[in-house]
Amino acid sequence: MAEDQHLKKSHMAIVLGIGLGVVLLIVLSLILTIVINRRDRRSFLRSKKDPDERLRSLDAVAPICTLEKWWTTTKGSLGLSEAVDGQFVCAVCLEQVDRAHEIRQLRCLHVFHRECLEKWFLGDHFNCPLCHRAYYASNTPPRNDYIWMV
Known about the structure:
Elements (H helix, E strand, L loop, with lengths): L1 H48 L1 H9 L4 E3 H12 L9 E2 L6 E2 L4 E4 L5 E3 H9 L28
Antiparallel strand pairs: 1-4, 2-3, 4-5
Pfam families: zf-RING_2
GO molecular function: ubiquitin protein ligase activity; zinc ion binding
InterPro entries: Znf_RING, Znf_RING/FYVE/PHD
């Protein structure tokens, strides 16, 4: 009988230990989530304060010009024939880019409507929307990073 009581107490201690461990993990996960969200919110608010300044930094890596001007210089440097038509679709909005539209060209030679790439960039995306090649290094960590816990 005494041995059964001791066995029940041992099982109860194990169950309580596991239960307290799970509760502790949940509380630590919540605290970590709150801290990360606060940090991300501060970074987000900081990055939204000066969009004009941020866009000026984008000019260095993705200059603005018209599609017509870009196409005439690029077609010649790539050695393409006159038969190539130069029809482009913006991969962000999926609309055709007209010759008179302002575009931004990335180092990977992908072009996008100026407004589309600016919205993409201001959303803390620092890679090409089409090929995902990095075109800009952020000074602050992106606000959409995640910590995975297993």
